[in-house]
Write a structure and sequence with these properties.
Layout lengths: L2 H16 L7 E3 L7 E2 L2 E2 L3 E13 L7 E13 L2 H14 L4 E4 L13 E15 L11 E11 L3
Parallel strand pairs: 1-4
Antiparallel strand pairs: 2-3, 4-5, 5-8, 6-7, 7-8
Length: 154
């Protein structure tokens, strides 16, 4: 498995661990089209989408690169309080960055894979997104967290 996919999975399991106290929360590794049941969005849902990926040389004569990635974490909540609580929890949890694990060894909870790297958070933001209720049959509250991470793991 390529390290890019290991980063994707590490972010996914990191977010699942941050929200482990939300037993009914749906976490999806894509925009929430996969979180729709009977054409209705499951609330609460957190979706993770990897965005732009940039690799840059950082040492002459070496093929190692610094990898900068953008992550979009979308929150779909029942109310404003739940949305903000989830957003603030995510920001606080990411302060120390996100560890990268070797998922070639297996997946939680059956396996605790080996840590192979770390993504440092370069910037993070949280934005509540207004939802126009007249265009949606089901009322929900939405927010988006954007992380920009740096990983020099090869």
């Amino acid at each position: 498995m390529l390290v890019y996919r290991k980063e994707d999975l590490s972010v996914y399991y990191f977010i699942k661990s941050v929200f482990s106290s939300y037993p009914l929360l749906n976490v999806v590794d894509s925009f929430p089209s996969t979180a729709v049941e009977n054409s209705e969005l499951i609330i609460p849902t957190v979706s993770i989408d990897a965005g732009k990926l940039v690799e840059e040389d950082f040492e002459i004569g070496n093929r190692n690169k610094i990898r900068v990635r953008t992550w979009y974490i979308d929150i779909f909540a029942k109310n404003k309080s739940q949305r903000d609580d989830m957003g603030y929890s995510m920001l606080a949890a990411a302060n120390n960055g996100i560890n990268i694990y070797d998922y070639d060894e297996g997946f939680p909870p059956d396996v605790s894979p080996t840590r192979i790297g770390h993504m440092q958070i370069l910037s993070q933001s949280y934005e509540p997104i207004p939802v126009i209720l007249s265009e949606n049959e089901k009322s929900y509250f939405r927010g988006q967290i954007i992380f920009v991470t740096e990983n020099d793991t090869v």
